[in-house]
Design goal:
Helix content is 39%, strand content 7%. 3% of the residues are buried. Strands 1-2 form a two-stranded antiparallel sheet. By secondary structure, the chain is mainly alpha-helical.
């Protein structure tokens, strides 16, 4: 029997006034995290981004976003810039420079693609 692990991914954010549920949590494919099998580091970011597939409702992230916005309206908005991403990646102590550069490039590509969400 195959268990859908997405139902077990729950993240809580602790704040001074208590906990809140984090709605956006598992971004493994979106940040090309599986460098062993799906998105090897030897493949450039642009090529890897073309091969990313969503796994929730359908295989296209844009189609999922369009469906959610059609049903519920536009409630997603991001308010960070390149400098915030760079600062966070510079402070992160565990990942290699190669991985950090890749994450930075992916996020910048997504910022350009979804400008209306920023």
């Amino acid at each position: 029997m195959k268990i859908d692990i997405r139902i077990t991914l729950l993240c809580l954010w602790m704040q001074e006034e208590g906990f809140t549920i984090v709605l956006f949590f598992d971004h493994g494919a979106a940040l090309l995290a599986n460098t062993t099998m799906d998105y090897p580091l030897i493949v450039d970011v642009e090529t890897s981004m073309q091969n990313v597939r969503a796994k929730t409702f359908c295989s296209d992230f844009d189609e999922q976003l369009d469906a959610a916005e059609e049903l519920y309206g536009r409630h997603v908005h991001f308010s960070f810039g390149k400098e915030v991403v760079k600062e966070l990646l510079d402070r992160e102590p565990y990942y290699s420079k190669e991985i950090k550069n890749r994450v930075e490039k992916v996020l910048e590509m997504q910022r350009r693609k979804y400008q209306y969400l920023f």
